[in-house]
Design brief:
The protein has 262 residues and is mostly helical. Helix content is 60%, strand content 7%. Strands 1-2 form a two-stranded antiparallel ribbon. The two termini are 27 Å apart.
């Protein structure tokens, strides 16, 4: 069938399914088979952490709590877009199960990698959150006092948000999910805007230093955008592609060269 979102890239195979399963197992082992640190192994800011914190942290309890609530919403919103897009493909492209299935596997692959990496931080790095000391002085500093005190690095909210946004962009920039390039680019822009709002809100809420957020953004984009781009959204090698090794001689140079026809 001539689907709008016809898959024109290399088909997913056993390597992709095995990799996804192994990443899922890795995430499970980190999340459920390792214990969270009972005391911090890393405290305080580095580089420009303290300067950025002073500049952006909410000046009142209400502001910090509001920022925390906003960050929760915008951590999930880009991920919700992922699954809605699969519904759009199925509902508006004559039940294109193949593309919807491939998108699902790619989503799970990215989520497993990001989940494993982002949860490894609280288990093995155990950085103290910036609001721990203020909360010791004032238990009403914010509503999240005492919650995951040693889970500062990386920002899990930022990694989740940018994982979702990265996947949204990867899909929409390579598949006509909405049927028009402008609409698909707008979807990518919206997802990135929501993820950025999340990242800033985590610092306003005083839950993370900027270095935590930068690390979370990097992890999220690595699993959400770079992985799909490098592993899946590559033009397939033509069936007519040919490579040959030929001798080269001339100009005082002798040797072999690889030539190809694509």
């Amino acid at each position: 069938a001539d689907y709008r979102t016809r898959w024109t890239y290399d088909p997913l195979g056993w390597v992709d399914y095995t990799t996804t399963a192994l990443l899922g197992v890795g995430w499970y082992l980190v999340e459920y088979q390792t214990e969270a640190a009972s005391s911090p192994r890393w405290t305080g800011g580095i580089l420009f952490d303290d300067a950025v914190r002073d500049a952006v942290v909410g000046g009142s309890r209400e502001t910090r709590n509001r920022a925390a609530a906003i960050s929760d919403i915008f951590a999930l919103a880009p991920q919700v877009m992922l699954w809605l897009d699969i519904g759009v493909v199925l509902a508006t492209d004559r039940l294109n199960i193949k593309t919807a299935w491939y998108m699902t596997v790619i989503n799970l692959q990215g989520a497993a990698l990001v989940g494993m990496l982002s949860r490894a931080g609280p288990r093995f790095v155990a950085r103290q959150r910036p609001d721990v000391e203020p909360c010791r002085l004032d238990r009403e500093y914010n509503e999240t006092c005492g919650g995951g005190s040693n889970s500062g690095f990386p920002s899990g909210h930022a990694s989740a948000a940018f994982m979702g946004a990265g996947l949204v962009c990867a899909h929409h920039l390579h598949l006509p999910i909405y049927g028009h390039p402008a609409a698909d680019r707008a979807a990518c822009g919206l997802a990135l805007a929501m993820a950025t709002t999340n990242a800033v809100s985590r610092m306003v809420a005083d839950r993370h230093y900027v270095s935590d957020v930068i690390a979370g953004v990097g992890i999220g984009l690595a699993g959400g955008f770079l992985l799909p781009l490098l592993a899946h959204y590559r033009p397939p090698i033509s069936d007519e592609a040919q490579l040959a090794i030929v001798p080269v001689s001339g100009g005082g140079t002798q040797g072999l060269a690889v030539v190809g026809i694509f």
